[in-house]
Design brief:
Elements (H helix, E strand, L loop, with lengths): L2 E6 L10 H13 L3 E6 L17 E4 L2 E4 L1 H11 L9 H33 L5 H12 L3 H5 L4 H18 L10 H14 L11 H16 L9
Parallel strand pairs: 1-2
Antiparallel strand pairs: 1-3, 3-4
Helix pairs in contact: 1-2, 1-7, 3-6, 3-7, 6-8
Length: about 230
């Protein structure tokens, strides 16, 4: 029986921009595991596997339920040790750094650029919940967030940290991708699938790495539906 991944969807159920769900998808593909996705919206928590938890990603594997992207990664390496996401303590530490960089640098810079775009693409039934929850989180209206200036420059500055390693190596994991790559590319799928626009410019080594990541696993990420 294939694993089931609960995955956040917009009004078009084939558009799935959640960065944390994408991190898990990359990890499952890396493991070579068969999985199916179950799309859920923002607001109808009754359709979630754990309505009280009310977040995704969540994986169901037989009798096992695993929540939270970082917990899922650790569980995957324990339950399915072949093709490890992290093979050494050093790789695990690098993955923790990558995740910390996303939360301290990339996500804060890109979020104001995406909230209004995602709201526009969300299902009508999800929009009131999405607006209320995001405005509470950021302390600003969606319109105020969208009007924030300088975010493109902040995103581009945050990406410079990746230029040095990706100028020397094909992947953040070295010669082959590992959890570092999946954390970061999962995050980059968020803007890619939330707008048809190129809202920032990545440095050349980072842009080339993005193309390599999009080509992995028979172009799985490249084939993901984008807004028109």
């Amino acid at each position: 029986m294939a694993l089931k991944l609960y995955d956040l969807a917009l009004a078009d159920p084939d558009i799935r921009p959640s960065p944390f769900c994408w991190m898990v998808k990359f990890a499952l593909l890396h493991k070579g595991l068969e999985f199916e996705t179950a799309p859920v919206g923002f607001a109808d928590k009754a359709n979630y596997p754990d309505p009280e938890y009310g977040r995704v990603p969540v994986i169901i594997d037989g009798e096992e339920t695993v929540k939270d992207s970082a917990m899922i990664m650790a569980w995957l390496d324990k339950a399915y040790p072949e093709n490890p996401l992290v093979a050494t303590d050093g790789e695990a530490a690098a993955a923790e750094f990558s995740r910390a960089w996303l939360f301290s640098s990339f996500f804060p810079a890109v979020s104001p650029m995406l909230v209004a775009r995602i709201h526009a693409l969300a299902a009508d039934d999800d929009k009131p919940y999405f607006r209320a929850s995001r405005e509470e989180r950021f302390g600003k209206t969606i319109e105020e967030l969208a009007a924030t200036t300088g975010q493109k420059e902040k995103v581009e500055a945050s990406l410079q940290v990746l230029s040095a390693p990706l100028g020397r190596y094909r992947f953040l994991g070295g010669d082959a991708p590992n959890l570092c790559d999946y954390y970061v590319m999962g995050a980059f799928m968020w803007p890619r699938l939330s707008t048809s626009e190129d809202i920032y410019e990545a440095p050349q080594p980072v842009a080339a790495w993005i193309e390599r990541m999009l080509d992995l696993f028979d172009g799985y990420a490249r084939k993901a539906k984008r807004p028109s």
